[in-house]
Amino acid sequence: QVRLEEYGGGSVQAGGSLRLSCIDSTYDMSKYSMGWFRQVSEKEREGLATIDLNDYTMYADSVKGRFTVSRDNDKNSFYLEMNNLTAEDTAMYYCAATTSSVAPLRQSWYEYWGQGTQVTVSS
Predict the structure, then answer these.
(1) Cα separation values, 43 from 38, 40, 87, 92, 112, Å
(2) Please, are residues 97 and 112 in contact by the beta-carbon 8 Å criterion?
C-alpha cells in the first residue's frame, strides 16, 4: 500500500521559511499526482499546492507567490517550500497522493494521506 510520511515541520518566526518533505520508499512517486493540504482545528482541510502527472501545478490564493511545490522522482520525494510565513500559516500540514492524472485543490480527490506535520509560526 502507498504509505506517505511528512517531515520538516516545526516552529518558526514570522517571515521565516520551512521546507516540508513527503516520502514513501514503497512506490514510484512519478506515477502519482501529489498535493499539500493544511488543517486548523475543526476547519475544513485546505488545499494549498498540487502537481499532476503532466507537471501542471496549482496554488491556493493564500499561498501563491510564497509556497512552491516540487518533486524529485529519483528520490521518491515531494516537497513544499514555504517562504514569508505568517501566523495565519500555522496548521497541521498533510501530504496527499492520487492515481489521477489531474490534481485539483480539494481533499476528496486524494486517496492516500500522510499523518501530518505541525507548522507553528509566531508573530
Answers:
(1) 10, 6, 16, 11, 20
(2) yes
Q: What are 38's three cell numbers?
A: 493544511
Adjacent-strand bridge partners of 21: 7, 79
Please state the φ and ψ torsions of residue 42, each to the nearest 5 degrees.
-100, 10
The size of the chain, in residues, is: 123
Identify the CA nearest to 119 among candidates 38, 46, 59, 64.
Answer: 38
Q: What is the pLDDT of residues 14-52, one digit of tens each?
A: 999 999 999 986 778 888 999 999 999 889 999 999 999
- 81-100, pLDDT tens digit by residue? 999 999 999 999 999 999 99
